[in-house]
Amino acid sequence: MRDTAATTHRSPTAPPRSFLWSRRVFLTLLTGFVLLPVYVMVSSSLKPLEDVSSSFRWLPSEITVQPYLDIWQTIPLARYFVNSLIVAGAATVCSVIIAVFAAYAVSRYRFRGKRVFTVSVLSTQMFPGILFLLPLFLIYVNIGNATGIALFGSRGGLILTYLTFSLPFSVWMLIGYFDSVPRDLDEAALVDGCGPLGALFRVVVPAAVPGIVAVAVYAFMTAWGEVLFASVMTNETTRTLAVGLQGYSTQNDVYWNQIMAASLVVSVPVVAGFLLLQRYLVAGLTAGAVK
Amino acid sequence: MTTTLDRVPGPGAEAASANPAGRPRRRRPGRLRKSALPYLLLLPAVFFELLVHLVPIVIGIFMSFKKLTQFFIRDWGNAPWAGWDNYSIALDFDAPAGQALLHSFLITCAFTVLSVGLCWLIGTAAAIYLQEAFRGRGVLRALFLVPYALPVYTAVITWVFMFQHDNGLVNHVLHDQLGITDAPSFWLIGDNSFVALLTVSVWKGWPFAFLIVMAGLQNIPRDMYEASWLDGATMPQQIRHITLPSLRPVNQVLVLVLFLWTFNDFNTPFVMFGKAAPESANLISMHIYQSSFATWNFGTGSAMSVLLLLFLLLVTGLYLLYTSRGRRAADA
Fold it and tell me: pTM for this one?
């Protein structure tokens, strides 16, 4: 109906002018609010240190890429970067695989304890991180003492922790997503001689790719941005970006231009990935969780 | 373990499928079978959730009854029992520790209500405004998700820079350019820090509400709007009588999740203020962290965490009870 309105008069269901004006004003203000820090980040990362140490200026006095060269020297940024990449990548892969299995069980089978499982998994969202930070720390240290598996201070411990952070939301979202994949499809696969796991990987998973991508994006972002456990559970060699970036403030100077440059460098991969995949996230939410 | 299977026999299926010419397969939807398969599929998820969430919480509850100070931290199993002492310290609102906890709790409540309210309002408004197609909608949608996509620490660090006293953007605009304030303000210490924290929290949080509401809006059939338009409904009426009621189930979960995340938020204040948050922005997680690690009194810290968990359980329970009753009434 709207497409036919390309002629001179407006479509009958088109919104009134007052709505269009309020939309224009609201969206302009909101865009300004959203972009302000982004602008500060980008412009400050191109400024010499004097510009960011004295009164704020909207435009750099001269544009320099020096901060982008210095960030790698001031702190071992490359190492933190690799650590974050390993931790977030491994946590994402593990979390997605585990969530796919769990969601498949809940979506396709009826079994005793199903409701207990879904409710208790979701209720972990309620737990304050601070409540299990110290006990978890003690558990990791004790496991290390008992078995020699170093969890405390290692990337492994952090991976283990992070994968459980994104697990509840992932399971919850994938259940909804798998439910929307017609059962006839995997029943057909079973009749054709696939086992239940064959049906899962050959039929259900391919049909649910958008949901799985959405869950992976969420899991990666969760692990990439976590601060509390990273600050307690890492040491100098395993430190992630979340903690490492604090190294740009020394006793005498705060290298704001370098901080902004480094922030931009560590943000670009996640933001770019997220924006590329965001339509899967919206599609995944539409089909799955938001029902 | 009795399992009701919708249609699939358990592990035997693999063997049967390997030999399709063998005995006829007895697979029928709705058949009852004993199977361990769903439990096996759940096992990894259950194992990791137990290891990282449930076991530590049980230990945390256990610790809250111990006199766990720095002298016993290496050998915490042997710390003396404290009974209810840790709880009475935390809840004695006449003593400094209890007073500080109560203050932090009230601050967190005010902060959460304001932050969740604003996030929901902005997110819903933006989603409704972007519901109709127009030029630039896709760009705006991507743009609005940027704060959500940015890692917490880079976003918060940028805001910290903007809130600096001498070289920050906020003071430059408010004082130097607009002349609204008489002198540059301190944003990261003192009473202003509450406003600063709230601004950052809303900036970071509203896109999630936007994302969820946007997804929810896509499930509303378009004919509902067209039918109501034919009946003469105006746009505000449509929003009030179609859009918002249809979003009810989405909002029920969204508001709860926003509430829990905001109430427990540690990352934002921690990156913003470092290890010591100013009193007016001392959120409860930060307060417990500080009082545990500053005084090395983990027993009291654990007791405070348990109290926090009980409060969240209570609120969540009441909320779910209230909203599901409301929903049932609305459906009827």
Answer: 0.84
